[in-house]
Amino acid sequence: MLNIPCPFCGQRNESEFAYGGPVKPDRPQPDKVSNDQWVDYLTQVPNPLGPVEERWWHVKGCGTWLTIWRDTRTHDIVEEPGDAG
Is there a contact between 32 and 12 (Cβ–Cβ < 8 Å)? Predict the structure, then answer.
């Protein structure tokens, strides 16, 4: 089970949170990119090995949205992308 550090509530079990997905690049202007680039932005979710920046909503707690770095190989929460040993 993943323990997520909430800045207001402290360490909490992941069952209190809703996964918001990986942090994506800034949304491009639809009229300034090709149709293929626009479809890729809307439909492709990155799934790399190693640290990934993710959004989590503390839905059963304080209601805060958090951004954390989680190593997809170990599911450990790391402080910085390079901390994933």
Answer: no
